[in-house]
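FW: tagging you since you asked about this chain on Friday. Here's the raw sequence from the shared folder, copied in full. Didn't touch anything.
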Amino acid sequence: MATRETARDSDDDLPADMIPEILAHLPPKYLPVEMIAEILARLPPKYLLRSRTVCKAWRDLATEPDFILKHHSHQPTQPLITSYAVGPLKADCLEAVDLTTNKRRVVLRVIQRVPRPLPLHFADHGRDRREALMVHEWRDVCDALMVHGSCDGLLLLNFGKSLFVCNPATRQGARLPLLLQDDLDVLGFYKDADSGEYRLLYHQAERLGLSYYVLTVGS
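HL: got it, structure written out here
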């Protein structure tokens, strides 16, 4: 099934895997921090992840909210589609579609296993480090991955009654303190212009009608 959400990623044929190594061996005086930030912001996500291991300064830079937004702005917009398979090990996929080549690329794969201490976990999967693996505790075989919205590279998605916000490019995510119910519908996921906080708008059926709520996710 298709969604109206978008993802950003880049798969240019450039030696991006060499850029972090080259930069790491250059004397700091030759490259100001601002220039390093501009270079790293143009790397495909998988190479940006590798650059975070070069030094603490680069790791700190790559996790700054302003830098993450800058990096996201340099990635092409691509529509997302979701698919799922039911079997002994249930796996859901979130794929981005390159409209110029008609190729599909997995950006997030979800595997549900038996209950474990951590309900949400990101890890590299297979040989392609562009793909994020999210391990979620086993629920019901009818639970399916659903994307409710996207904003600045963040995805709002759910499995069954659990809601999550995650960034597949940085392998970061969090479970929200809100459970989906039959009388609750998600209406939107957006960034507040004044506070810079990300918010979730939803409504819930009550005895006297519908009530609308805003859940602040954070900045």
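FW: Residues 72 and 118 are 28 Å apart (CA to CA).
HL: agreed, and Residues 7-73 form one domain.
FW: great, closing this out.
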